[in-house]
């Protein structure tokens, strides 16, 4: 009997410990889905509103919990990993060593495609990672389906192609050619010739707003809405005196859809289509041109590389450098899981978890890298270089579980069409691009009920006086509206307008004085009036 | 070394046969989605605009009466039928689906002032200014279906003549008694030709009467001495009474919270009270610009509909100070009676222009059977619109209603008048000794006194 009781006593703590561990684990994940902190309801005075808001918070918590549980138990795929054994280091493991260890389908993703005379290649992936468009500088454009590993369409435009980018899906892509920007179909038909852009060097596409962004050698930034064809805006991004600091690097921050431009004097500025002044501009590399910029998908991290042989990692909320690494970088890219890849010359490095080297890859000497891109939802890094393009495996860089309604690598034609229609219905106006996109729908923090600051009071008084000055008095007859009388009336009106503010001021001063006095005297007897100045002089 | 790379086999992620459903995989990670709030805001804006595009509340008008419609009654057992009585003594039963008269009940010599149906749906009671109470047999629904255009005439079950003209009648829930309002409140039984019981407080006429749906023995009446009285049938004398500043035209009990009732008043407001605590109104519903003539609650207990002398029908939330919806037509004149249909989807109004009009309770609702996907979509759009309805662009669209010019002008005039009164009040308070002028809320201000 006694032993039974002891056993039960022993069992229960174990269960509770395990239960607590599970609870804690789930707690951590719940925060990921909560999208911010719980609001403080003490400031809400209205009881009805408070009750409604608390109910809402309860529902949010439930949603986040359900999402965390689904995240834990219901995900179909697991992420990739690369674990070294013994004294092995991950960066010493070469692609040839990884290849035989993985399955055949994944091995197909390691390849080198060589087109020696067709110039350095840039690439772009579609949002679901299934389609890729590659453009060689000598005019070769190729659209490929990477699931089936075959080329959908390739053609030669016989002009210099500087950049290529997919539009909202794989059906359309834009190429920056010698004189203009052209839009092509997936069957190679030229759909549009966008003359307003002119000869641009970089192209980017803002997916939520359907804006095609381009920047040319002298730093002119263009925004065009491809659904209506209208040119939204056109800015000169040149910073510094006389706009000398021109820019050539451009990257989109996918978190808030701002366009970051890197300048030749080392500044990085963020632009939005509705203002001619950058939202934010920071000197990142002193006096050295910025060669590459990349953004993490959570919107907080930015990596920049400059000619001063430094790669810097910035925290965008605090606007300060987190880490600096020596080395050049021709091109930078963040993967979905937060790995940073940097390429310079024929050497590619991949960093994991804030600058610990993960995987390195060096290509044959003749290959000079031009562009690095991680493939969405796959553990693959595509490298566009001077001799064509290559693809290497980087285990653990891609997001293993996709959401069918965000990006589906197994999309059918019907699903793609539906998605296009829905995306057009949800198209955001260009005004929604802002530094912190979560402020939409937030409550403005109310001013404290207390006194307005001195500045505000002055402003109010000024406004009142201005109003009084603008008053016009009725003109009376029979000599009752003499100029002297009118002038007097106006003065009176101004005095009346000022009166409440001056009264308030004197009242506040009185209150302040009496409070100060009472503090000082406190327990002591209040001196009669005649002696008070002595107490003030001493005290 | 241990290495694993993401590899997805196509079979797991695509369907096998074309009859299968497509497979959908979800990942709720916020990092995969950018600018969620902006997308929601755009959807809310579009939802508000679509709402306005599909807002066609008027379903149809039922005409047949040759004089103003003075009262209506719902049949608790049959959804499609509604009874209406007019000022020339004509009582009709309408079929709402075809909007035709099914049966007529001739007999009253003067205006029909009150109509009510017993809870089992068999007996219709009507009372009028010719001092008679008539009981009729309600025709059985199956018969109603078979007859298309021919309107039958029914013979009364019983005719009881009494001393004075009647103003209103209401039937007890799940009971055998009905009460009439006139010079005094009389309680009748179906089978007796004389009232079983009489309540009389003062010499003023009682103009409306309503039994409580939850407590079958409690009823509320309003009289022309501006009072609202609550009676209990088991007691000999009235239970409670409050006197207000203006007369109450009609009362409706909340079917889901039977201790609350709302009174439609002559001063263009509706006052919701808790019957247990009558010294302060729970809520004041302000939006009409002329006397509110009739009020009826939705079976959900969350909304009620009011009809007013200013030719409009408004729908209010049970706890909201302002109306959610307003219905008006050029042809609809003074609205004398309104009813909320028993499935909470329709509102019926009877007005001075001899027509009964059928309106949708939710103006942009899609009628008929909805697919589950459609229903979910509607619910989502409603929810996202409600989340952002405080933002200025969305609010402007959601709030926008076209008002007829006289009502718009009358409403702004009322606003100017109340603002001026309030300002004067504040100035008086500011210039008098602090505390000498007590502040009283609108909920209390309209009540003169409460009597036990």
UniProtKB/TrEMBL annotation, chain A:
One of its GO terms (biological process) is rRNA processing. Keywords: Nucleus, Repeat, rRNA processing, WD repeat. It is found in: Nucleus, Nucleolus. GO terms for cellular component: nucleolus. Residues 357-437 form the BING4 C-terminal domain. WD repeats lie at residues 290-324. It comes from the Eukaryota. It holds the Pfam family BING4CT. InterPro entries: BING4_C_dom, WD40/YVTN_repeat-like_dom_sf, WD40_repeat_CS, WD40_repeat_dom_sf, WD40_rpt, WDR46/Utp7. Residues 470-490 are annotated as: Disordered. Residues 472-490 have a biased composition (Basic residues). Transmembrane segments: none annotated. This is BING4 C-terminal domain-containing protein. The lineage of its organism: Eukaryota, Viridiplantae, Streptophyta, Embryophyta, Tracheophyta.
Automatic annotation (TrEMBL), chain B:
CDD domains: WD40. It is found in: Nucleus, Nucleolus. Transmembrane segments: none annotated. GO terms for cellular component: nucleolus; ribonucleoprotein complex. Residues 419-444 are annotated as: Disordered. SUPFAM superfamilies: WD40 repeat-like. Its main location: nucleus. Residues 419-428 have a biased composition (Basic and acidic residues). Belongs to the WD repeat DCAF13/WDSOF1 family. InterPro entries: Sof1, WD40/YVTN_repeat-like_dom_sf, WD40_PAC1, WD40_repeat_CS, WD40_repeat_dom_sf, WD40_rpt, WD_repeat_DCAF13/WDSOF1. WD repeats lie at residues 62-104, 105-146, 285-326, 328-369. Keywords: Nucleus, Repeat, Ribonucleoprotein, WD repeat. This is DDB1- and CUL4-associated factor 13. It comes from Penstemon smallii. Residues 361-447 form the Sof1-like protein domain.
